[in-house]
Design brief:
By secondary structure, the protein is α+β, with helices and mostly antiparallel strands. It has helices at residues 3-23, 93-103, 170-173, 175-203, 208-233, 243-260, 280-288; strands at 43-48, 51-64, 67-74, 114-133, 138-158, 166-168, 236-238, 309-310, 314-315, 319-333, 338-352, 375-386, 390-401, 404-409, 423-429, 433-445, 448-459, 463-466, 489-501, 515-528, 532-547. 21% of the residues lie in helices and 39% in strands. Helix 2 (93-103) packs antiparallel against helix 5 and helix 4 runs antiparallel to helix 5 (208-233).
């Protein structure tokens, strides 16, 4: 988070807290935590909890020098490469293999150029919660979140003769030249075969002129087949002057020279190569044009696919919940009529509905507002108060995530520009998760406290399978299991905050203006999994309690 914005926000939070201390309402409390789920009996709880989340890096997972490395890396790490090729653009792999066969070089790799990127994500989330205290021990309600997302992104591509060895294939850019070349090559082979057959008829099949001629024709036909396969099967092709381009040119020239020895001089065309590498504009067109297979959506109507993008306010995943206090223990100093110890235990059940919008698979920088599927979350809230000054909150949650069918471009996480043809319906089952939140606090007054926060969480790996329609009727479709890579995750956060409360026990009705205001800041300090954001989050909340019955 920008330091100026953060300091201003924290200053505002502290000012709120100090003002609350000076107001000094006299209401004793049932429990004071940031996420306490209960409302007093007979009261309607209205709560808004805006939060601002941002991150520009993640706890990445990558293969380096033959070993797996887990470390912080920029969010745009996979969009940055000194060798833009089939790793980022998996649909180039068949063409690259065809070029390897043509060049007889299994180590050949397509290099379109160099990519540099920077990305930062900002998410503003405003959950609005409405709940009713049905009983002293029972509260039911729901939360409707509104979400706005933004990804600041800069992406630059450079293609030149130093960083590139390939560009857009002549078979795509100038197909007539490729057709003329291949036809002339094939016709010259047929003419040469006539001459060789004549030599074999005159000198015998085992004679040197016959054996050498047929060996030459076999090599020439193999080169023609390999060239035809490379032109037909690859969107890219070697540059003029590149090592691969020189190899192709010299092999074609050798065939032409060999044909001339048989009196065939009709083969004069050079193999069409790429004259110039892609520039930035050309690479953007490569990503968006239907001619080249990716067909990415632009981030803006007049933009390119990897630039700043932000959404309008949209609905997230709506939640419905119930909470029941199952235990309330307290010990009071009867001589002073002051509490010495109090423990409250509350169990909760939350159902998170799939009302949010998942990210668009055709927009490579989109961020969804939710998962689009249903979760069931079991909750346990524990609150411990020691005297008037000390308290401890311990929240435990376990989430069971249900399956949903959606469209996804099936590719590994680092294949950031998968082809549109890889987009298929898949069944997604997000991994179950758990989290623990520990929050010790110190009361400066009965209404105002400072708290530290520690949160740890973990999520199992997701599962992907073909959707109801089954696998596509295409040869060797990518397996949905590719999408499950780097989905197992865990993380730890630390933070702190303040809360002011003017809410007393409902049975006493002593709170003149029943409300709570709070704010806390949380920072990720460690994570694992490959995609876990290295994030910071500022949250500010306000709860208002409105009496419905019972004289409150």
């Amino acid at each position: 988070m920008n330091r100026t914005r953060l300091s201003e926000a924290l200053a505002g939070v502290l000012q709120l807290g100090l003002t609350a201390v000076l107001l000094g309402a006299s209401a004793p409390l049932e429990a004071q935590t940031f996420d306490w789920p209960l409302a007093p009996r007979g009261r309607l709880l209205l709560e808004a909890t805006p939060s601002f989340l941002e991150y520009a890096s993640r706890f990445g997972l990558r293969l380096q020098d033959g070993r797996t490395v887990e470390n912080k890396e920029p969010l745009a790490f996979d969009f940055t490469s000194n060798r833009v090729g089939s790793r980022m653009l998996p649909h180039l792999t068949p063409g690259e293999e065809a070029l390897q066969a043509l060049l007889d070089d299994p180590d050949y790799r397509v290099r379109l150029g160099v990519a540099r990127a920077r990305m930062e994500v900002n998410v503003i989330r405003v959950p609005v919660r409405i709940a009713v205290g049905v009983l002293d021990r029972l509260t039911v309600g729901g939360t409707v979140p509104f979400v706005r997302r933004r990804r600041d992104a800069d992406f630059h591509f450079v293609g030149d003769t130093l960083s590139s060895n390939a560009g857009l294939s002549p078979a795509v850019e100038a197909p007539a030249s490729v057709t003329s070349f291949l036809n002339q090559f094939g016709g010259s082979i047929d003419a040469t075969r006539t001459q060789v057959d004549s030599l074999c008829l005159t000198n015998g099949d085992t004679s040197s002129p016959c054996v050498d001629g047929r060996s030459f024709l076999q090599d020439a036909q193999a080169l023609l087949d390999a060239l035809s396969g490379a032109y037909e099967g690859s969107l890219v092709f070697p540059l003029v002057g590149s090592l691969a381009g020189q190899t192709i040119a010299s092999r074609v020239a050798a065939v032409q020279e060999g044909m001339s020895a048989y009196g065939i001089t009709s083969f004069t065309l050079a193999a069409p190569l790429v004259d110039a590498p892609l520039d930035e504009e050309g690479f953007q067109a490569f990503l968006m044009s239907p001619l080249y297979g990716v067909e990415a959506l632009p981030t803006r109507p007049d933009g390119d696919p990897i630039r700043n993008w932000d959404s309008v306010w949209e609905l997230g995943d709506v939640e419905v919940f119930g909470a029941f206090r199952f235990l309330d223990l307290s010990v009071t100093d009867s001589a002073r009529d002051t509490p010495r110890f109090r423990y409250q235990g509350t169990a909760g059940l939350l159902v998170r509905l799939g009302t949010g919008k998942v990210d668009d698979p055709d927009n490579f920088v989109d961020l969804g507002t939710g998962d689009g599927q249903t979760d069931v979350e079991l909750q346990l809230f524990n609150d411990l108060a020691l005297g008037r000054r000390l308290g401890l909150g311990l929240d435990l949650k376990y989430g069971i995530q249900q399956s949903v069918e959606l469209d996804r471009r099936i590719a590994a996480p680092w294949q950031v520009f998968p082809a549109l043809a890889s987009r298929q319906p898949v069944e997604w089952t997000p991994g179950n998760y758990w989290e623990i939140l520990v929050s010790p606090r110190v009361f400066l007054t009965p209404e105002f406290f400072l708290a530290a926060r520690y949160r740890t969480w973990s999520k199992e790996a997701d599962e992907y399978d073909w959707g109801g329609a089954g696998p596509p009727e295409t040869p060797d479709p990518p397996e949905p299991a590719l999408l499950a890579q780097e989905t197992e995750a865990s993380g730890q956060e630390v933070g702190g905050g303040v809360l002011y409360s003017a809410v007393g026990p409902a049975r006493e009705g002593r709170a003149r203006f029943p409300f709570e205001a709070y704010a806390h800041y949380d920072r990720t300090v460690s994570g694992m999994g490959g995609r876990t954001p290295n994030s910071s989050r500022l949250t500010a909340g306000f709860r208002l309690y409105v009496g419905l019955w019972g004289g409150n």
